[in-house]
Request: fold
Amino acid sequence: MAHATTTHAPSEKYYVPHSSPWPLVGSVSLFLTVGGAAMWLNHSNAGPWVMTIGFAILLFMFAGWFGAVIRESEGRLYNDAVDRSFRMGMMWFIFSEVMFFAAFFGALWYARNFSVPWLGGEGTRALTKILRGDNYEAAWPTDGPGDVGGDFDVIPAFGLPAINTAILLTSGVTITIAHHAIKSGSRGVLNVFLGLTIALGFLFVYLQGMEYVEAYQHYNLKLTSGIYGSTFFMLTGFHGFHVTMGAIMLLVIWFRCLKGHFTPTHHFAFEGVAWYWHFVDVVWLGLFVFVYWL
Amino acid sequence: AWELNMPVGVTELSRDIHGLHMLIFWICVLIAIAVFGMMIYSIVKFRHSQGAVPANFDHSTKAEIVWTIIPVAILVGMAIPAAATLVKIEDTRDSDMTVKVTGYQWKWQYEYLDQDVSFFSTLARDSDHARQLDSGVDPNSVENYLLEVDNPLVVPVGKKVRVLLTSHDVIHAWWVPAFGMKKDAIPGFVNELWFRADEPGIYRGQCAELCGRDHAFMPVVVNVLPQQEYDSWLAQQKGGEQAAPAAASAQTVENAAPATAAAAE
Amino acid sequence: MAHAHTHDAAHDHHDDHGPAKGIGRWLFATNHKDIGTMYMLFSLLMFFIGGAMALVIRAELFQPGMQLVDPMFFNQMTTMHALIMIFGAVMPAFVGLANWMIPLQVGAPDMALPRMNNFSFWILPFAFTMLLGTLFVPGGGPAGGWTMYPPLSQQLGDGFPMLIFAVHLMGASSIMGAINVIVTIMNMRAPGMSLLKMPIFVWTWLITAYLLIAVMPVLAGAVTMLLTDHYFGTTFFEAAGGGDPVMFQHIFWFFGHPEVYIMILPAFGIVSEIIPTFSRKPLFGYDAMVYATASIAFLSFIVWAHHMFTVGMPLAGQMFFMLATMLIAVPTGVKVFNWTATMFKGSISFEPPMLFAISFLFLFTIGGFSGLMLAIVPADFQYHDTYFVVAHFHYVLVPGAVFSLMAAAYYWLPKWTGHMYNMKLAKAHFWLSTIFVNVLFFPQHFLGLAGMPRRIPDYSTQFADWNMISSIGAFGFGLSQLLFAYIVFACIRGGEKATDKVWDSGRPHGLEWTLSSPPPYHSFETAPEVK
Ligand code: HEA
Ligand code: HEA
Ligand code: CUA
Ligand SMILES: [Cu+2]
Reply:
């Protein structure tokens, strides 16, 4: 039962925190954030304020909760079992994110293979078009028989999106180099390549933002451009949001690296974020192929 | 009324479905007798209070295999007639006439393609009055309470009627139990079903998809008439009100046999 | 336990002292038992709220004609009843059981991620505050059915975003809970406990947790699309823009069907624990049970469209979903047969947990049979959206899932509280429940077959008689549950001291019975060895 006497040998026992205010703070903040959002959507003036307060508390919660975890980790309270728990937890969290995206990819697939052809007079519900009596042709991209949102152009795959693909793929390489560096203890390399990854991540977000501006201003491609606009912006939007989150997470990890956290054998936080980064990378490949290209 | 079972209905499809229903029901009853019998036997026979001494076996691969295979066989036996009936149901080709049915919150619109006949069908006045909160009217005093409309759908007996379903607002479902058919009416899309009523009569059903406040109050009533009476009804309708021409003709609809029908071959 | 650490986090590290004093014990809890208790009490509260709504439904349906509520309010009751029962009562109850029992059964000190555990719980009261809050805003609560089909669900007033966000919160809670369960099971098992030595309840929960992680995010995606269709001009579910209302149904049921197995697999686990104990005989076919559970979970992903046979699917699709659905009867049958074989040549005694488990066996099977009938597409054209469906799913959910929860409570309450409960009252509760649940739901089969649609506040007079019987059953069943609440609280407050083994059948196997009743605050400080 005795704990090792040095501060740097990991605990033998599975660390169970005694009590923590953060989950409750987190619940309150989530409640205020979405409650405020709901008020906002219902045109209440207080909505944005409530939401902002909730969000601020949420950030405070993250800082407090992760701060506690970092202190415990650096205090070597975590043994290998705790480390494994974190790893498994992160992996299944990422899997849940995959399934979240799957819902939207599923919507894209359904629209392209079922609803749009039916509306265009093919397949099981061919009569739909005859009774509607117009000359809508099933095609992709489309904004539907109602021409919702008006004519639009699509972002060509082999313009900005291809550049963005290259950027994300490169960032996948740089973070892997950083990972090898952390394992071999080359902190200089680690700091540089992690920094590079972050720069690439934010560059991606910036270019994605440019692309949206372009889409709205020059292509008339909007969230409201029928099913194409819906799937396009929801998929790329949620992805962009995840990249932003990932980049912020990388940033936090980078500061921790600069402060000298992590050891060649003990760096779950780094790996967790790296996995997350690979995940947004892979989702992007799916987007590039199914949203932009095909 | 203390009805226990599904009524048989007046179309071939509804009889097929009823047969299928009884078949699976009795299969389930037989399995239930076997399984529940075994359970009851064990519960009665091996009571601790009667000094039963427990055996100690805990698995048997042979048993597992047996009670995997037998249910599979039973299921195959159910699936075959079910699939055959399904193919028949989906074959809407070669119909004698086509009616377009549109769901509204909370009424039905019936349009006879190629006939320039179209009208709305809403809950009958006396039912509508009685169903108000605290109306003070005893529903039992209203004839066909909630199952009566002002203008029923009228079709000829013995003819294959193809029904095209769509909706003006939310999803509804058109259902006449005696015809054995229920299908959703979905805004922006067209579904279809068919029936051929064997006997004249008035058949009643209801909207079967939650469609808002008055979902319970949009019945479906179909008046199946002998051909002659139907013809004179139709003539009268044409003479009477001015109907909006339906977008498509029965002919174009008939020519566009959808993939379901093709797949049914 | 002195430490050399100087870090501030170290002070509360692994002290052997018991629970914190006062309300902080609950608000800031990290202890799996405290959190489990909160989950279960919360779920009991929700069961009563959801049940009260069911009683409003049954009261209005007692006679034909509108007597009590506006149709709109009736629809709100139907919708909220289902949402509260599913997300507020049954799921949290199972998570509560997982919290209490999994660490005890795998020989762990606690759940793997204790703080996140507390987060999963505390989100729920807020989520349900938001959900119930919809009843008090302009436009009222959701009234489009728990399935939230558009375009109808888009007609909701100010409650609309509250509904969506409440579902998001519940989803977040479930996902975190499921991650915790998986990690605890995969990482915290006592040395020697290989996967195929795990108690069957742990197995069923492991598989349930996988289902949860796979489908709750899909639900979140589906309702997010509802939200953007409503407020931000997307057209996922509108034909004019190239979308399709039916698309929502596909996404929803991709979640919804696994969801119903999420509510029954842990129940299978509980029953598989109880029957051997009171039959004094090992569980028959442990391995087969595990494989059957896994098969059910796998199949649950490829049957979703059996809820939508009437939407007008391609023929091949209807065939596929019919056959896949029917297949589920096979592994489920394996389970039923194995339970029967466990009782066969046993030495059965009839304590309250066993009574509920036996009742489960019969009544769940009846619900399964009606499920199988629903799977037959042509027949479903008649059954769909009638009370036959309502009868089906209440049979699997109430004498299925809920009875398993009662059985679990009666099985483990002495372990949790250290007290025996009042056996006589519990048996009375059992008989009242079993009789009334059948009075309540069996006639609904007849109503459905005779043609009564579901989700209606008023019906034609031909349906009057069975509705009256059903409503009487509902009130009888509901009132009987007050007895359950009384028994539970009386047991928490005191009673005859329970032994460590609790049940003198000599059978209860599993690590939980090696601990004292109630178990020490930190369950297994040192991991037990499993041979
Ligand atoms: C715990 C919840 C639960 C469970 C376990 C099940 C189990 C099953 N359900 Fe059910 N179901 C629901 C909850 C559940 N269901 C709900 C909530 C709805 C309605 C949702 C809504 O619309 O609001 C629904 C609706 C529903 C429908 C849609 C009906 C409609 O809307 O038209 C269908 C159709 O196929 C169906 C089928 C089945 C089948 C085949 C099973 C099978 O798993 C059953 C298998 C079990 C057995 C068959 C019995 C034991 C087996 C044997 C003894 C072996 C031998 C047997 C044979 C060979 C026959 N269910
Ligand atoms: C786990 C899930 C679950 C559970 C446990 C139940 C439990 C019950 N359900 Fe429900 N039900 C569903 C899930 C569930 N249901 C679903 C998914 C639907 C479909 C919804 C939809 O169509 O969208 C549905 C729909 C549904 C309908 C159909 C409504 C309609 O179509 O319009 C009916 C009608 O009888 C009903 C009745 C009941 C009853 C009487 C109980 C009883 O078992 C309840 C017993 C419990 C109590 C009665 C509580 C006891 C409380 C007291 C006695 C005290 C009262 C307290 C106060 C007044 C403060 N339910
Ligand atoms: Cu129209 Cu229900
Ligand atoms: Cu299902």
